[in-house]
Amino acid sequence: MIDYIILPNMRCTRCGEVNERVTEQLYINKEPHSNTYTVGSRFDLPDDVEGFAGCDYVPARPDVVIGPRLRVLDGWTCRCCGAGNLCVLLFEDRVLVEARSVERSLMIFAEVDLVEADLPRWWVHEALEERFPDAEGIEFLYLTEILEVIRTGQMIAGDENED
Ligand SMILES: [Zn+2]
Asked: Which H, E and C letters describe the chain, residue by residue?
């Protein structure tokens, strides 16, 4: 059983095309129900961070509390050019009230509560390499480590020797 989500009116950040209906597989429910969800649907969201982790969504901060209002960073693929894009899903009392396509920016991680674990990450690596040009192994960081680096503004200590 697989659930699907239909994201309406998603503008691609690469080609600029507005995708009127983007259909993606959905794994954020506690259990799959073979349903199709969209804005206005009530979801079967997990109750706590551990439950979301079981669905492959990681907390954007260590102190995230699963409350009635949740912002989730997820991915979608443009049907016109195939580019991987980002969207923020806003849930209120388990109802999806908004799905917004967003630009790739490290700032976005500070605006959300949960992040889909399999998001395309090359752009995060590029942004971090720009910010920390001397750091090594950025491409090997786990998502949780990336989130920590972004949150603290500090590169995780590696083998570098400081003079
Ligand atoms: Zn596109």
From this structure: CCEEEEEEEEECCCCCCEEEEEEEEECCCCCCCCCEECCCCECCCCCCHHHHHHCCEEECCCCCCCCCEEEEEEEEECCCCCCEEEEEEEEECCEEEEEEEECCCCCHHHHCCEEECCCCCHHHHHHHHHHCCCCCCHHHCCHHHHHHHHHHCCCCCCCCCCC
